[in-house]
Structures are given as C-alpha cells and as structure tokens.
Amino acid sequence: MSRIYYTKPSIGELEVRYATDAAANGWGERCYEYIDRFEKGFAAFLDVPYAISTSSCTGAMHMGLAALGIGSGDEVILADINWIATAAPIVHVGATPVLVDILADTWCLDPVKVEAAITPRTKAIVATHLYGSVCAMDALLDIGKRHGIPVIEDSAEAIGSSYRGKRAGALGTFGVFSFHGTKTLTTGEGGMFVTSDRALYERVLTLSNHGRARGETRQFWPASIGFKYKMSNLQAAIGCAQLERIDELIAQKRAIFQMYAKALAPLSSHLSLNVEHPETVNGYWMPTAVFHEHVNFDRDALLAAFKQHEIDGRVFFWPLSMLDLEGLQGPVDTPVAHGIYRRAVNLPSYHDMGHAEVERVAAVIRQVCCRSVNDGLQPRVTGGSSVLRTTRAGLP
Ligand SMILES: *Cc1c(COP(=O)(O)O)cnc(C)c1O
Q1: Pocket probe mutation, ligand 1, options 6, 84, 92, 157, max atoms within 8 Å of Cβ
Q2: Kind of pairing, strands 271-272 and 166-167?
Q3: Helices vs strands, H then E, count in the chain
Q4: Is any ligand 1 atom within 6 A of the Cβ of residue 57?
Q5: Which residues are registered as beta bridge partners of 124?
Q6: What angle do CA 229, 108, 72 make, to 5 degrees?
Q7: Lowest mean pLDDT: which of 90-94, 147-151, 385-389?
Q8: Is 131 touching ligand 1 by the criterion CB < 6 Å?
Q9: Are residues 108 and 21 in the same domain?
Q10: Distance between alpha carbon 178 and the CA centroid of its chain, in Å?
Q11: Ligand 1 pocket, residue 110 CB under 6 Å
Q12: pTM to 2 decimal places
C-alpha cells in the first residue's frame, strides 16, 4: 500500500528544465533573469503592480510590517487560529499580537471581534485566508478604512482563492505568499510580497536589499538597517515553471476537494468541509473536516487509524493563545477557536492524488469517526481526552 502524503509538490519536466538552465546559465549578468520573470509573472497573475520575491512568507511579512513602521508599543490584530509564522514577525518587530476569535464556517477572523479589539495602539489587522477559505474582506476592509488601519492579507494558503473577482492577496494594503514545499505553488522554500502601494513597495524593496535604496550610486551604502530575505534565481526558475502551470495546479486542488465532498457527502450531518461563499472562490489548499459538536469524534483515534492505513493526517492549527509563548497573549476569550480545533483534521491533498486515494481516506473516516451512527452507539461527550480509544474506534 503506497503512502498518501498530506501534500507534496508537482515537479515536472518544465521545472527541471528551468532549474537546470538556471544552474547552468543563471549567473553573472543573468543572475536575476528568473527572479525578474517570476516577480512580473506573479504580479500579473494577481493583477497587482508590485511584487518582491523573498526567501519565505515569514520574511515577506516581517519586511511588510517593518515598512509600515510597526514596532514597540503597537498592536496587531490576528485570528487566534493561525500558524505561528503569522504571529512571529509581529513579535520580531516588537509589537503585540492581539488574538481574536474566528467565524465558525470560514475559520477566519470574525470582523465583529476585530472591531471590538481595536484600541488607539492598533496598527494593523492581519487577515489569514485559512486553508484557502477567504476572509470576510468587505467587512475587514471597511473596518480598516473607518479606523485608518491597514489590512494585511496572509495569503500563504490562498493561491487560487478570490473575493468578488479579485485574487486573495491583492485586496489589502499588502499581501504575502509562501512557496514552501507544502504549498500549492512551490519553490522549495520561498515567498512573495505584493502590493498596489508604490511607496510601500519602494520601502520594502530598499529593506529587502539590506537597506540600500534603488537610486543609490555609492557601492555598499545602506541608508537604513534592512533585511536579507531574498529568493535565489534557482528557486525563481522553479517558480516560473510552477507559475506557467498555476491554473492546472489550482484546478487539481479544487478537483480533489470536490472528490472529498462527494465521498464524504453521506456524513454531512456529522462533519463540515471548507466553505466557499457565493462571492468567493476557494483555492482549497487543504481540505479540512470539522466534526459537529454532537458527533462522537476522537481526533487522536482518527489520526491513529490514518497512520495505520499509511495516510498522513494533520491536526488543525492550535489556538495561538494555548501555546504559552513569550510575546503571545495567554488565555483569551475565543470560544469558537477553542471549540473547533479538537474536532478538526486536515486531509491529504496533492497534485497526483486521484479518486482511489481520496476513497481510501474517506473510507477510514467513515469507518472510524461515525461509528456511533453506523452501529447505533449513543454519542458521547466530545473533547478533552487525548487518550487513544483504539478499541472503541474499532481498531485492533
Ligand atoms: C506556510 C504559512 C506561512 C509561512 O510560510 P513560510 O514560507 O514557511 O514562511 C505563513 N502563514 C501561513 C498561513 C502559512 O500557511
């Protein structure tokens, strides 16, 4: 039985050809060719004027926050459910992450909670499009506008997602993307900063070049302390190939999600999958099942069963407020975030996955998770236990 990875890149002949060309020829005068092409191509794909490639999404976010002048004493609002990479740059610039609750269907920022968390110190709102779901951008942009606060889009998981015809990442003051090996478009490691604000673009460009301004004629003359978060030409070569295939990469993510939706449709009274509201398109980076509160669901039992069947499962992100990290808020009142994470798992999705693999995953879910329905057991109270209920779940 071959292993089903939770994700893996789709690297074909084109990627190998471009990477080989960059390795053989992309030096000296040609050392920026693929970088320029990747940035221009990505900006065109997103329909924004400016894009700067970076070594990671985290680096792109760090520079963007710094370029907005966010620092010590400032507050930045983000969802309690987030990968740590979204919060870490806020801490790195010396600001305080303010964690607020999420909406139950998109798992993204609740605009009402965002507005309630605004103080005179609030300097930005970070909208993370979780697992491809699109944030309530109209409401968030309206709040930002009324309070004079920039809205930043963490679009690391949202290539292929859009809102009212605009691509995720192109709606806020700036957007950041990740090309980590697990993401829909990959360069191994890598990221992108995008914006429509020319002045902001110039500031990030200078910061990204160790503080050396574009027009500076003196060699090795920084005007400020900057950063070194650059993408290499070799990585950009792979990025160019992936970008040529982007429609195909996104279409397959969406097709895989539809296969899950069909395979799990009989369990629709037990679990919900990623939503796609009418005004949005979901890039479905990671299909995710959230089991309803009344369901007899044990996340650890399901993950153990996946493991036994050579299937990668992934836990939903923990509420950041649970992590007990210096720089992050401790307990906060985020009942939706705290109610969801234990009832949710990410399901495998990679380009070469087909019906057979999706069916294998769905079969384990049907067998393990909803046994209470299958064999008429009474639902038990959910949550809390991390003890593996292997016998209970019907495993050997
Ligand atoms: C992957 C990811 C990041 C971090 O991306 P890197 O390129 O690894 O820095 C940030 N935010 C979200 C939501 C992500 O999924």
Answers
A1: 157
A2: unpaired
A3: 13, 14
A4: yes
A5: 76
A6: 50
A7: 385-389
A8: no
A9: yes
A10: 8
A11: no
A12: 0.93
The residue among 181, 160, 180 whose CA lies nearest residue 170 is 160
Question: Is the per-residue pLDDT at 384 higher than 70?
Answer: no
Nearest CA residue ID for atom 14, ligand 1: 156
3-state secondary structure 319-330: EHHHCCCCCCCC
pLDDT at 371: 62
Which among 210, 244, 278 is the end of a domain? 244
pLDDT tens digit sequence for 280-292: 999 999 999 999 9
Q: Are strands 174-178 and 151-154 parallel, antiparallel or unpaired?
A: parallel
* pLDDT at residue 67 is higher than 90: yes
Atom of ligand 1 nearest to the CA of 128: 13
Pocket test for ligand 1, best of 92, 134, 178, 186 (most atoms within 8 A of CB): 178
- Domain closes at, from 214, 244, 274: 244
Ligand 1 centroid, distance to 380 Cα (angstroms): 36
Reported as a single tens digit per residue, the pLDDT across 208-219 is 999 999 999 999
Same domain, 36 and 159: yes
Pair (312, 327) in one structural domain: yes
State the DSSP H helix or E strand holding residue 271, giving kind and residue range, or none if neither.
strand 271-272
Mean pLDDT within 339-353: 96
Contact 43, 51 (CB under 8 A): yes
Q: Tell me the C-alpha distance between 80 and 211, whole Å.
A: 33
- CA of 217 relative to ligand 1 center, distance in Å: 35
**CA dihedral over 205, 209, 213, 215, signed as positive or negative:** negative
